[in-house]
Amino acid sequence: MIEGRALVTGAADRLGRAMALKLADMGFDVAVHYGSSAEAAEETVAMIKAKGCHAVSLQADLLDMDAAQALVPAAAAALGGSLSVLINNASIFEYDTVATATRTSWDRHIGSNFQAPFWLTQAFAAQAPDAGTDANGEPIARAAIINMVDQRVRKLTPEFMTYTLAKMGLWALTQTSAQALAPAVRVNAIGPGPTVQGVRQSDEHFARQRAGTVLNRGANPEDITAALDYILRAPAVTGQLLCVDGGQHLGWKTADVIGVE
């Protein structure tokens, strides 16, 4: 299994916090990145330290590409050595369509979900440890990147247009960087479905969304962290997307299909 130090973007709360705590359970020291939630980030740091691991909080506006490029070196310096895991989790998720999208919505979604992960990937790869050798004499990656994508890249809709385009770009980056950075760095993606209720989402809508998946259930944070655990322990896996979504991306019961023989 990959070991050492990790950086999780957007780790102050929600799924970012859950993944940061899972990494601590796995023995990683963790840099907790946040944008504006300083208090929540410090709570995450305290929870990691309570598990016996080192942790620091680092603020950066990932819409500022200079700040994005500087985050990996800052995390490595704060933790005392090179990083072996990067989780690109920080995300802006706001509604627009092809008709309502603006330069602002484009810049916010592309910047947070695609551009920043690209520069973070570049900086991470520049300091990542070289591949080791396993018992069979074959190369084994000692570093990993996990990109938090979205199940919707498997099931395109015209809703959340610029967000979806950005996540499609991140999925492409996952595959191409897996090619470019092998064998030293493995790069994979997790595609959550309905897992944590959205801040603008009603209880009723969230429940309907979970119930409407193929499995009639959504995912829980523990399902996402289980996927994280698997990816870090799977030395032959790279360039993959693991949709942890109750089968949401497989939804097929549409009016053009139901009742047609």
From TrEMBL:
Keywords: Oxidoreductase. One of its GO terms (molecular function) is oxidoreductase activity. InterPro entries: NAD(P)-bd_dom_sf, SDR_fam. SUPFAM superfamilies: NAD(P)-binding Rossmann-fold domains. It comes from the Bacteria. Belongs to the short-chain dehydrogenases/reductases (SDR) family. This is NAD(P)-dependent dehydrogenase, short-chain alcohol dehydrogenase family.
